[in-house]
Structure formats: C-alpha cells, structure tokens
Amino acid sequence: MEATVTQAQLALIARLESEQGGFGEKIEAHSVARLATFDPTPGNASITLAGLIPAGAILLGVTSRVIVANTNGACTSMSIGDGTTADLWGAALSTALAATTTNANATSNWPTPVPAATDVVITANGGNAFSLQVRVTAHYYTISAPTA
Question: Which domains does the chain have, with CATH numbers?
Fold first, then answer.
C-alpha cells in the first residue's frame, strides 16, 4: 500500500519542524542514509545496517538507490527488511544501477512508532550479490517531552 502525503500535511510538517512548544517539547524530522556495500567475489548474502532507525522514532519509511550495480548474475534481485521480515520495505527489488525504492515497495503500512533501535537488512535473492552498493535512507520523526 502506497502512503501519500498532501500539500496541507507537508505544510503542517514544515510548521511543526520549525516550532518548539512553550515548555521545550518539540518534533524533528530526520532522513539518515547509510551505504551498504557488498564484497566483490564471493560477495555477500546480506548486509546489515545496524540501528539505522533509532529507538523512539516514528518511522515514515525506508527508501533506497543502487549506487553500484550487482555483478553476479546468480543474484536476481534484493529485498530490504528489518532482520525479522526480510521484505518489509521491498521484495524482488532491482539491483541495476540507479534503481530506487519508495514506500510504494513496502509490504507494511507507515508511519509507525519504533520502540527499539531497528536494523535495516539488504538481502541478495538467488545468490550472493557481488560489488553491489545500495544507499538506504530511513525517514522518521522524533519527539521530545516538555523540559519544564
């Protein structure tokens, strides 16, 4: 299911990001990216980006872009998950140069609160991926309690 955001929601988000409550409480938007690099021969079956999504985040989604294409023909695609659900953010995804993913590829609904730090795992399907590089970005909000 693809999540859509209206212009009014974007305007509200921008206002919330720029404001802080009268007692120190606040909401902040984050986009944090890391590069997953699969080894050349013999490659890897998966790469884990440990703790990419922090505890307490309100996750909006996980996106990706292939920076260096896979060079092993046995690897037919990749999946992006959290180590428990292999395809949470996408299944049978292309490993071709410049291939991208969005919430349209997700197999679950977002946003959702994340109580514990969460890994993002890129898994090669069909065989190890060789030299594949994927930039993965977690998009989330954090909120803080009043300070006074």
Answer: 7-144 (2.60.120)
